[in-house]
Design a protein that fits this description.
Two copies of one chain form a homodimer. Chain A has one domain (10-32, 49-76, 88-174). Helix content of chain A is 68%, strand content 5%. The first copy, chain A, has five helices and two strands; from the N terminus they run ααββααα. Chain A has helices at 2-5, 7-29, 50-77, 88-125, 140-172; strands at 33-37, 40-44. The first copy, chain A, has a two-stranded antiparallel ribbon. In chain A, strand 1 and strand 2 (40-44) form a beta hairpin. In chain A, helix 2 (7-29) runs antiparallel to helix 3 (50-77), helix 2 packs antiparallel against helix 5 and helix 3 (50-77) runs antiparallel to helix 4. The longest helix of chain A has 38 residues, at 88-125. Chain A is elongated and about 70 Å long.
Chain lengths: 186, 186
Amino acid sequence: MGFFGDPRTEGILRFCAIIGLILTVCLLGFDKQTTQIFHVDKKATFRSLRSLIVIMYVNSVAAGYNLLQLCKCWISAQPKLGASKLGAHYDIYIFWISFFLDQAIAYVIFAANTAGVEAALLAITGAYNLQWMKLCNRFTRFCFQAGGAFLCGYAASLTMAAISFISAFNLFTHYSPSHFLRPKSK
Amino acid sequence: MGFFGDPRTEGILRFCAIIGLILTVCLLGFDKQTTQIFHVDKKATFRSLRSLIVIMYVNSVAAGYNLLQLCKCWISAQPKLGASKLGAHYDIYIFWISFFLDQAIAYVIFAANTAGVEAALLAITGAYNLQWMKLCNRFTRFCFQAGGAFLCGYAASLTMAAISFISAFNLFTHYSPSHFLRPKSK
């Protein structure tokens, strides 16, 4: 099946993506700090910012999806259970679904992470014109842990981009370049 | 060349993307409002929020890139000037470069827009725990115009996703499914 089509390559990448996604979720989930602002106790958790909540949900869903795909890779890596037994017709559907879901998840994870980083940058610098004050000088540990989570999230989204590259390869190499979506004859 | 491989399909999509990108840039660029907060005049422009500045730059670069690609599509649509004259070897390089750039730009536009929407949502609801106040009840017109800009930006990033789909098709249909990156024999 070559390097790209090999389910083991895909499996390893998906495993790395799952690790990155779970690390992000854990780092954000256990990130709590309480501090005083204007003599009032303020507690920062991931629930304080909508973008962090979104990252938690998106990354959990993506980790679950990758776990399912990992099972698929494991099944196709078994010589006796290989999906090819079910016929090339069935393979093509799987490739299309994988292609769309991988693309969508890669986009969504990348965008959610970037939105999180954007909110974090607002917390570091504040927005003077808009009367939003700097917060990371008060919630220092919280901000560092969130930064670590974003790094893991970006690693995971790079891995997802590579996976979506592979699934595009797996899908489109089965089509002829000169005809609209006509599968190649063997 | 079929529907996907047809440079006209790609050209039309790229033209739509350019329109969307330029609309976003114009709507954000001309978005200004001054209002009083605590008896101080505060002016909101796209320069007040880093994410809006990033959207301006990213979308301008993407529009320029799509304009260049539009020229390429126009050249390949001319029967006499077609890139095929330069040989299939040259075509493959163009396909690889287009594939990577289209993917990268689609990801970056989508992420930049989402970061902008995230900042806009913060402005609509505020973040009570973090002492960031609501702003859209004071800068209403500004917020509506920014919302329109985000809609155009999302339309443009959907178009870019379709374009990157086409460029993946153009690239990978030239490769064999069973060998790692080995071009197909005719």
